[in-house]
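>> received
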Amino acid sequence: MKYPRGRQTLVGVGLALLLVLAWAALVGYALFLHRWSTADLLLVPLMVAVVCWLDTGLFIVAHDAMHGTLAPARPWVNRALGALCMLLYAGFWIGRFQPRHMDHHRAPGTAEDPDFHLQGRRFWPWYGNFMRQYTGLPELLGVAGMTALFVFGLGAPFERVMLFWALPAILSSVQLFAFGTWLPHRLGEEADGGFADRHRARSNAYGLWASLITCFHFGYHHEHHLRPDAPWWRLPAMRRQLSAGGIRPAAASTADRAVP
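>> returned
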């Protein structure tokens, strides 16, 4: 059964705004209000970890926007909110990521897939290749621009920007890669890597909360490839439907078409 576009837009935008507000509140506090103390031996790593998790959420929201599933009833809201989340995350422009991500859905686990590494098993070489595929001079300029905005435009101390904005973004890229690319798409010992179908993806077996904490349910990755029209918060429902044998793959055009 198709999920109502209006309801999906309402829930998706509401959750996205909560993420953005939580991110802005914590990063703003860390950059401008936090007072250093001996408790920071425990508090600062916790703050970095929470910002890292919120960064992961920002990227997943932007990813939904690439598929048009963030606000399907309001395309301009979908585009604007996705672009905002990507800019806050690392100063990136969503329009550069979207075409390559669509290539990933069209040819997963092949030489034409920018997310895939031909060796197919080793973590760090694959991560390095993944980052090369998605980052270049425009992304470096975006990072530099956001850093300049924080330091010179808003007056944040440079070391705080590095600790509470840059470091969590780097850590979240590792988190996103580990749970959203490497674990779902790495090759197994079997001839075809142990994949169920042409999507060449598998899902983790985490429960609801572990799935949310690790990667905003993006570890339910086979379900995402089967139903790219389902946003991140609906992936647990897609998983339950798949277990019950009731999920139907989305039309190929939905999976492969970039949002204008």
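>> The CA atoms of residues 171 and 231 lie 23 Å apart.
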